[in-house]
Design brief:
CATH topology: Cyclophilin
Order of helices and strands: EEEEEEEEHEH
Radius of gyration: 15 Å
Strand content: 25-35%
Helix content: 10-25%
Number of strands: 9
Distance between the termini: 16 Å
Structural class: alpha+beta
């Protein structure tokens, strides 16, 4: 569970409500954080599927860690200062256990997305909280 500082990150993700739009997508490939990054989000370049304009949907709630695809094929990981609603398809959601990693990603860093079930994501978070509490017993997350 110790963080290794490098130029690559493996982010655990659960399916978003629009995950079916990326069915058959090769999740083992590496993606790269582009220079288009700030406190609202990080553009992630790579071989994302191109979406049809009909894939756009009405605005819906979106949370930090959400990964949205645009019709142009760009993908964005939303960060803490991102909007609270969005109309682009929400295909993946970075698990809460990895939210602290998002602020460490720099342009040029490589990113892999590891698919998790909601149950596995809950187990990951419990494990991480237990690890942190072994260092700081009074920690509340």
């Amino acid at each position: 569970m110790r963080q290794v500082f490098s130029h690559g990150f493996a982010l655990r993700c659960v399916p978003g409500p629009d995950e079916s739009l990326i069915a058959g997508w090769d999740k083992k490939q590496d993606f790269v954080a582009s220079r288009r990054a700030d406190r609202t989000g990080i553009e992630v370049t790579g071989s994302w599927p191109r979406l049809q304009k009909t894939a756009l949907r009405p605005s819906a709630p979106i949370f930090p860690g959400g990964i949205q695809l645009t019709p142009s094929g760009a993908a964005f990981i939303l960060l803490q200062d991102a909007q609270t609603t969005g109309g682009y398809p929400h295909v993946l959601q970075v698990t809460h256990a990895d939210h602290h990693v998002l602020g460490q990603i720099r342009p040029g860093d490589r990113i892999q997305f590891l698919k998790r079930t909601p149950e596995e994501a809950a187990d990951d978070l419990r494990e991480k909280v237990a690890f942190f509490r072994s260092w700081i017993p009074d920690l509340r997350l």
